[in-house]
Structure formats: C-alpha cells, structure tokens
Specification:
Strand 4 and strand 5 form a beta hairpin. This protein has a domain of 75 residues: RRM (RNA recognition motif) domain (Alpha-Beta Plaits). It is an alpha+beta fold and 141 residues long. It contains four helices and six strands. The N terminus and C terminus are likely disordered. The strands form two sheets. Strands 2-3-1-6 form a four-stranded antiparallel beta sheet, covered by helices on one side. Strands 4-5 form a two-stranded antiparallel ribbon. It binds one DNA strand of 9 nucleotides through strand 2 and strand 3. One of its GO terms (cellular component) is mitochondrion. Keywords: RNA-binding.
DNA sequence: GGTGAGCGT
C-alpha cells in the first residue's frame, strides 16, 4: 500500500525523462516568406549601389552612373567618425527610366577594381513631418 | 587599419 504512495511521490524526477514536449519534437517549420530574405525593392529613382571600393567617392560614383542618365543625387555612405567609406552608396536619377538604365548599365560592372551591384533602393522612412519640432517646451512663456 | 555583406549623414 505504501508502495503506491512512493510510486507517485518519487517519480517526479523521472517524469522529466518521459515528458518531453509531445507535440513539438522538432523545430517549428518557418511559414516561409519569414526568413531574412532581402527582396528587391520596387522600381524607383533611388538606387542602392553596393560592392564599392573603399576608395570610391561620391564624385566617382556620380561620374560612373551619369553615363546612363541624369544623376540628381549621389552619395557614398561613409562613417561619420572615421570618414571611411562603408563600401556602398546611393544614386538618385531624375526619372525611373534612367534608373533602370543605370542598373542595367552599372550592375555587375567594375568600378575602381571592384564589381559593384546596383539595385533599387528600399523606401526610407520619411524624415520629419510637420508636428515634430526639435524643441519640446518652447511654446509657452 | 580599412576586413567585403549590406540600405543612408
């Protein structure tokens, strides 16, 4: 009789060996389209250029892409403190048409000894909308 | 000092 009580009170430590998650012995399969896959952004006048040489500057980037259209804005992303290029940049054409030609003409090409990759840049969050002043309590006096 | 995938001062 006392053995029954012992069989109920003792096996607590043993239950952990038998009670492994029953319904999830494996990793839950990702529902797809949830992986860190970087899809290409939709066409726009803004281009993302990667694979740049560390010595490639904004001017050279503009020169290279100006062959295929009017470059309205070009910028090589550089570190603010060190001032060195991060190896990628952005190029903005006047029209989407030129942007497409810029990609077709510069993607996979060489620039300063490095193969660069040109693609449409992702949409960026808007800078600052009217209603967000930099100074908080500056209205009442 | 300048690496080597990436999405901006």
């Amino acid at each position: 009789m006392a053995a029954m009580r012992a069989a109920v009170a003792a096996p607590r430590g043993l239950r952990r060996l038998f009670s492994t998650t029953p319904a999830s012995s494996f990793i839950p399969p990702p529902p797809s389209t949830a992986a860190p896959v970087r899809e290409k952004a939709e066409p726009s006048t803004n281009l993302f250029v990667s694979g740049l040489s560390k010595r490639t500057t904004t001017e050279r980037l503009r020169e290279a892409f100006s062959q295929f259209g009017e470059v309205v804005n070009a910028r090589v992303v550089t570190d603010r403190v060190s001032g060195y290029s991060k190896g990628f940049g952005f190029v903005r054409y006047a029209t989407i048409e030129e942007a497409g030609k810029g990609i077709e003409g510069m993607d996979g090409k060489f620039l300063d000894g490095w193969v660069i990759f040109a693609e449409y840049a992702r949409p960026r969050p808007p800078p600052g909308q009217p209603g967000q002043p930099m100074s908080p309590p500056y209205g009442q006096q």
